[in-house]
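Teaching note: in complex prediction, the entire set of molecules is handled at once rather than each chain in isolation. The prompt given to students was simply: 'Predict the structure of this complex.' The entities are:
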Amino acid sequence: MDFILHDKETITEMLTSIGINSLEELFQDIPADLLLKKLNLPHGLSEPDLLRRLEELSRKNKIYSSSFLGAGCYYHYIPSLVDFVINLSGFYTAYTPYQAEASQGYLQAIYEYQTAITRLTQMDVANASMYDGSTALAEAAIMATVAAKKKKIILLEGIHPEYVEVVKTYCWGQDIHFEVVMEDALISKLDESVAAVLFQSPNFFGGIENITELVQKIRDKAPKCLIIQVMTDPTCLGVLKPPGKSDIDIFVAEGQSFGISPSFGGPGLGIFASKQKYLRKMPGRLIGKTNEINGEREGFILTLQTREQHIRREKATSNICTNQALCALASLIYLVSLGKTGLQEIALQNFQKSHYVKQKLATIPGYQILNKKPTYNEFLVKCPNVHELIEQCKQENLLPPLMISKYFPDMKDIILVCVTESNSREDIEKFIHAAEKASNKNIGGN
Amino acid sequence: MTSNLTLIFNKGTKRSQHNFIPEMDIDKVDLLEIIPSFFQREDLPLPDIPEVEIVRHYTELSRRNYGIDSGIYPLGSCTMKYNPKINEVIARLPAFSQIHPLQEENQGALELMHHLSEMLREITGMDGFTFQPAAGAHGELTGILIMKKYFENKNLKKNKILVPDSAHGTNPSSAKMAGFSIIEVRSNDMGEVPLDHIEFAMQQGDVAGIMLTNPNTLGIFDRQIKDITNIIHKYGGLCYYDGANLNPMLGICRPKDMGFDIVHLNLHKTFSTPHGGGGPGSGPVGVTKELISYLPDPSIIATEQGFVCREKTNNSIGRIKCFWGNFGVIIRAYAYILALGAEGLKRVGQISVLNANYLRVFLKEKYHLPYDRICQHEFVLSDRGIENNVTTEDIAKRILDYGLYAPTIYFPLIVKGAMMIEPTETESKASLDNFIDVMNNIYNEAKTNPELLKNAPLNTPVKRLDAVLAARNPILKE
Ligand SMILES: Cc1ncc(COP(=O)(O)O)c(C=O)c1O
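The expected output is the structure of the full assembly:
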């Protein structure tokens, strides 16, 4: 299978017509000693053989009937029309819409995406997407240091540990000073030299910050410091106060929860939004509305491109070129499919169901809920016997919660539980039963 | 204003039910017991729109958008080839699309990436790969950070990097993000990199190396590539290969053999994964043996017990993205390579170059070809000699009127009024002939009816849009 359309005769005819004797002669510029003798790869496969082979391979991964794992990647129901729309040829087989007049469909869709994100977040402007939540956060940090003309940022404890790592890598690239601090030490660390404070809410451990209070504290101590909020599951915005109403300067999020399948953690979607005053410092593409030069109609076009690498080269605000357009489209379709009513209901169900599990676990001997702050769909639990709980979950065909020691080796016996609307009552009862069994075993066995 | 512009937000008839949420099947408590009211939002300005309206709206929008399934998409440097449909099916197999990045039972996913990495090693000659980068530019940043770390470890202060003037904008921009300053290298009149400039720059002692794509953005294979990489290595530097133009090299010539130390590939170009209107992509980075320990964390290793994930290696630049990379894209590239096999891939290399040269030879009869020699996957025309002040943009817009897509324009920057044309291997002779006819017609129209070009396009959903107005008065949302 090679998707090439010429037969032998056509190839000969084409070669002859351009005065070339053989296919090999096309590579006359390549020094002979650089030409590859043989590509050591297997023969090609027919479509059915390929499908069989990959189905077999995929079966080495396990899929569970229900998941209690989140930690940056979430199971939410995806309406069928999301996949239907992103599979339309005009969308998924297009390139970046450089020729606006032949790309009005995509440009309008991404303009709608920008609109949906600003309405959801109440931020002034949103870009056309970044790679994912972690790189969006790193780019936000860099943008803040440029806007503030300072080379130091502070991260509040509670940001997804992998995001922290990514920010650290990006900061090292640009010699940006980087520090992670505990909440009670934050104010003492703040001074004139700090470009930005980054925090996650709901944070990695599930806790929802009192953002109004946090922002006030930061503004009082360091009025010029930018404040950047990140979240990994923005479905909570169906209920929670949006960042734009809390005076947040830059808001970023992982948008995978909005209609994108988990797919082993990628592709996801980097949501990026900011206050208007930082617009020209923003990374990434922006779609704007304009008019025909000689006409009445309005249309859409890539705009403010002088921020971007293809025009400004090393002076660009970021190197990003290809982004996650199709994922932005998926999330737009998700948001408009659910609509206001649906998104509110999703958030409510996540609050209610995780609260239910939290309450139940708290009554089982040996379990202790560690969050002091309110939580959304994730929370931290100290367990009597973590390994047994994980084992019991697997036996019930449930994807077990995260053992937090993966990221924080000192935090033993603690799990991060995620409960969403996708967990049915039956799944939830199974999970609680698994927790009870693990508890009994511990008390009985040892 | 026309009905064209009705946004989805203005489409709602009221609907009473929402279809995509399961029935609440547990006992609720008062929400205020869970979350205080001052944490809650007051309103949510999103409409409720019925499914039927949504499907019609986006079906209509998709019709107003050109894709590779519509016809030739000759955007130079973008390798817009056909996207095999089977890959969409495979990426959606539940045991790929529904797996969590932190779940333990992931052997299928790790094996897939490990095997793809082996095949990419064979294709490029490199010794190790990471799949974390989400696109080409992200791969460049990763690769240049590897250079940075390499010299930091050696305690050498090398903070400059050579980038030819023909390079893609992401190259200098990525190098800058990794903390380097850029020395621009002027291409010579053959479109190649002058050796004496490189030698001189490397003698200064503070240059880390070079970023190159070969064939370059003019579509020209730099015949002195081995000399270039030798010079860089002679002074202890590293050579970075921008693999955006790898398509014509498949089965023909390998970056490692050219002397490169670090490469990134664009799976969303060379390996047929759909570009999706601007992404998602995947930009795996390959390195030589000496640099494997610098690749981002975590890495996948094969052991007797199966594939395992190693969280940290001593020299690693750290993490560059959360989780594993754009796995959904990686699957499609894997399927593509398995489907084509060794012969198929080589055929891709050959036919992509045949198609480009076929267009080059017939188009240069009328259009100016500034670098007039054999090309690889693409070539660049200029607007020189086009009459009546007709510009490259006018020509591009007129191409849209014929129902085709335009080449990349005004890039590379070293050709004035550039039109960069890359047909790829998945166009038929008839399609190429049609493109030639269209270009020739337009050439004649420029002579006889220039207004037609200056007012183009006329047959698209909107006429030519005002980019200046858009930037002067940005309207970015409704
Ligand atoms: C030569 C070259 N280098 C790098 C890139 C950047 O790749 P990406 O858009 O995937 O970031 C491109 C793509 O436009 C390119 O053509």
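Point out the following to students. Chain A has 13 helices and 15 strands. The pocket of pyridoxal-5'-phosphate is lined by residues A 321-322; B 77, 135-137, 168, 170, 213, 217, 242, 244-245, 266, 281, 283 (CB under 6 Å).
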